[in-house]
Structure formats: C-alpha cells, structure tokens
C-alpha cells in the first residue's frame, strides 16, 4: 500500500510539473497588463535598486515596450546612494530563546558578522521614544511599537510610517546601539515588512530592522510582564555610494507634437523579499495597457509618455533624475503605485478653468463605480518631482488599499495576490481617463 501511495504521489507531481503555471493559475491569455505583470515578476523577479537584477529589468522593459509598439524607448542611467542587503537575523536571548522574523531597513547601519547583543528597551509609540532623556539609551537596543490599522485609502501609512522613517535616527541620537520596530503593515503573518529609514547628517546610522507583527506582539507582551529582554542582532548589509540605476521611457506620439505630453509614472524596481507584483509591476502594467488601449481606438492629440522609474524604493531617485533631466513642458502627470486593488475614487489638482475637463472624467468613471473625491490629487513618488518643479495638473485614480499593507514590502508581494478582474478594472479606469486627457486641445493647468 505504501508503494502504491508513493507511485500515485510521483504521478501527481509529474502531472503538476507538466502543466504550465499559466494554465494552473488560469491567467488571462493575451492580456497586455497581465502579460507585463507576469513577465516582469516571473522572468526578472525581485528588482532591488542598484543590483544586477534591476539592470536586467531595464533591458527587459526596453525590449517589451518596443515589442508593444512604443516609440522613443530609452533607458536613462543615473547613479545613487543605495543599500545592499546582507545577512539579517535576530533572536531573543532572554527571557525566552526565540528566533525572530526580521528584515533590515534600507540604509540600516551594519553589525559585525557575529552580530551584537544587548538589553531591549520597549517604547509603545514613537512619541514615547522622543520623550526619552538624551543619553538614556546608551548601549541599549530600542524596540518601537505602534498600532497601524487598515484604511481604504492607505492614510495610516503616513503617520505610522514615521516609526520606520524616523525612529532609528531618534534612537541613535539618544545613544541606542540598534533599533527594531514593529513592521509597518496590517497582516498577522510572520512576514517582516522592509522599507527605507533615514539618518540625518551628523547622526551615525545604527543597525535597524523590522520584525513581523506576531513577533512584535510577543515582545509587547513580555514588556508588559516586566521581564528583562535581551536580543542578538545580525545585519550585515551596507549603504553604498554610486550604485547604478536608470529610468526607462517610452512614448506613443500624438497627432499634435506641439502640445505638451501626458506623463504616466510607475516604478520598475522593487524590494527583494518578494517579486514586486503589487509594488509596482502592477502599476507599470496598468499604465502601459491603458496607453495602448487609447492608441488602438484613435491616435490622440497629445503624446503619452511612460516613465518606468528606477530606484524608487530607496528614496525616489528615479523621479528626481527624470525631473532634473526633462525640463521640457508637460501637460499633466499621473502615477499608479498602490497595488492592483480596484479604483474607487478619482481626485484632481486642476485650475478652475479645467473644471469641465474634470467633470467629463468623473462622469466617464462613474459607471465603473468610481466616486469623485473632495481632496486634492498629489501624484506619486516618481512623478511628484516634475509636478512640483513645473506646477503640473494631476489626476489620481485611487485604489482600494484595505489589504495593501498586508503585502507591501513583504515576501508575500507575489503574482498570485493580484486579482485579474481588479487589474482589468484599473486598466479600464485609466483608459477612460487617458482617452479624455490625451484628446484635450486646450491648456491643462494646475490649481493656483
């Protein structure tokens, strides 16, 4: 009987490996957005800024965009100060021995190969850490907690993300030898969430990492018990100057080259823990498919330009490089960089003279279940530098972010988390919006 079960298992395994992944997952065939998303995550994989993998992604992007019929496809290189991951490990030594699920934060300081060990000082909030006396944390490992909650619009990422962006530097300024935070995320898995931190000039970087939410819960329970905690920490990654990156640009020329182009942004790079499906291969897939849809029906008046930006995850370097290099006029900028959840709201940053234009877009999107927001559109990291420099009009197509921070910057950022129907709704929303904007002959102006 045992041999019979073994034979069946081997036969099943053979059948599984013989079936292409696309067939097993029932992926849409011939769908431009899905093909870009699946190709980038499966043929290139993780695309950490400054690495050989990100360079391969640029080559892949150029070839794919040319094959899709885009013009003026070019990679524009730049260098930046980045972070290359090393070995990330952490273990509670006391009061119980436990290996923690941890990831280093971008620009973390570096430990010796054997690691460091120290007493843990628990802070329930970033404000509690700020209130700690100067010099009171010398030789200690700081743990910073918080309480991020789900929101549809992802608004919690700003205030709670400050724990990651500012916490380690504050701890370093008070003498801490290392800082560990609760991951900036809303899941309950033992998946740590990475992301960048920042050390101002004059503050020496200390090792800084994020543990998974279940591990943070455990640390918080031990802290409430009053038992002393000790932690062993290994983080051997290094901040490195003059790393290579680059942006990939492509255009679909309009009928009137004298009109400034519409700029659509996404970012090509990703963190290295997953394959960067929702952050941000999905965004590149959405804007590219929508631009092609508009050109299939008619060549619009305005040129549509794509910016697949590099090195976004380590500080938005690609967006800044684009704004510095491209001083020619633009009409308007948009970005897709919030996963692949359904678009539920549209927001505008336009002058009063363009209210009829905004009204037409809102009316066209209403049948897709998209409501008009009252807030002002801001764009995303990759287009914001050129928006601010040229005072551009902006349209935001806001996606449902209820579950985005379950996956963001984690090993779970993989293709299977993208719903094909939601992706298609995004493409439809962007297509409707672009078909109006790219055929607008009049001036498109930002809010004064």
CATH class of the largest domain: Alpha Beta
Q: Are there runs of 5+ residues with pLDDT below 50, and where?
A: 1-25
Q: Give the CATH topology of the largest domain.
A: Aminopeptidase
Order of helices and strands: HHHHEEEEEHEHEEHEEEHEHEEHEHEHH
Round the Cα radius of gyration to an integer and report it: 24 Å
What does this structure look like?
The chain has 448 residues and is of the alpha/beta class. It has helices at residues 2-18, 21-25, 32-44, 52-67, 126-130, 157-173, 213-225, 277-297, 317-325, 355-365, 384-390, 404-407, 420-437, and strands at 71-84, 88-94, 98-100, 102-104, 116-123, 141-144, 178-182, 208-211, 230-235, 238-252, 262-267, 304-309, 332-335, 343-349, 371-376, 393-399. It folds into 2 domains: 23-82 and 241-437, Zn peptidases (Aminopeptidase, 3-Layer(aba) Sandwich); 86-236, Glucose Oxidase, domain 1 (3-Layer(bba) Sandwich). It contains 13 helices and 16 strands. It is elongated and about 70 Å long. Mean pLDDT is 93; it is low at 1-25.
